[in-house]
């Protein structure tokens, strides 16, 4: 059998020419075995009708096997020549012939260097696509976080609106004024608290001295 992979022919036919030849060989071989079995059966029937015949079935089988080996040897030699002829003249595509799906290569030929540069460009584009996909994923995560923060801010604004409404209903004034008043009161309380702490420290120190 031929060792040439014949990949271009396999692309055209849908199978490798060697596979086709192997199937033909096995089919012929099976047919040869079947013919020899039929011939052996006919010989045995003829011998049964011949009284006094001293040829036994085992001798017939031995002769059949010998003849089969002879025929197989002749068949292998003939098949080798037939295979060579079919692979060269029937199941092969000439070197100057392009399949329809490969016509584009004829219109846009590429040298090995150009093909290598194209491969490198494709690799760079793949890396760029991956980086952009990662950046997009990070952006989506940030947007989700911003949605959460926005929801919290809206809650706080709603709380201030409700608080200002309560202040107006109670006649306290605007929310801004109320917050300013609370801030001033807080500062005054902090001053008073600091004075109380200082007086307390002085009292503790005097108690220790006494």
TrEMBL record:
Protein name stated in the entry: Protein MIS12 homolog
Subcellular location: Chromosome, Centromere, Kinetochore
Subcellular location, principal: nucleus
Similarity comment text for this entry: Belongs to the mis12 family.
Alphabetical list of Pfam families matching this protein: Mis12 (PF05859)
GO CC term (a single one): MIS12/MIND type complex
InterPro entries on file: Centromere_Mis12
Organism: Furnarius figulus
């Amino acid at each position: 059998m031929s060792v040439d992979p014949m990949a271009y022919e396999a692309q055209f036919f849908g199978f490798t020419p060697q596979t086709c030849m192997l199937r033909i060989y096995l089919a012929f071989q099976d047919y040869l075995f079947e013919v020899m079995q039929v011939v052996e059966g006919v010989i045995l029937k003829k011998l049964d009708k011949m009284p006094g015949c001293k040829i036994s079935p085992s001798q017939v089988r031995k002769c059949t096997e010998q003849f089969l080996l002879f025929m197989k040897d002749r068949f292998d030699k003939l098949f080798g020549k037939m295979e060579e002829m079919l692979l060269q003249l029937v199941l092969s595509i000439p070197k100057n012939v392009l399949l329809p799906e490969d016509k584009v290569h004829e219109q846009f030929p590429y040298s090995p260097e150009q093909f290598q540069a194209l491969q490198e460009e494709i690799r760079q584009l793949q890396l760029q696509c991956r980086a952009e996909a990662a950046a997009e994923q990070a952006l989506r995560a940030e947007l989700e976080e911003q949605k959460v923060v926005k929801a919290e801010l809206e809650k706080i604004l709603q709380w201030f609106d409700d608080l200002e409404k309560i202040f107006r209903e109670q006649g306290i004034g605007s929310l801004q004024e109320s917050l300013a008043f609370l801030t001033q009161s807080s500062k005054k309380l902090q001053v008073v608290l600091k004075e109380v702490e200082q007086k307390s420290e002085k009292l503790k120190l005097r108690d220790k001295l006494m």
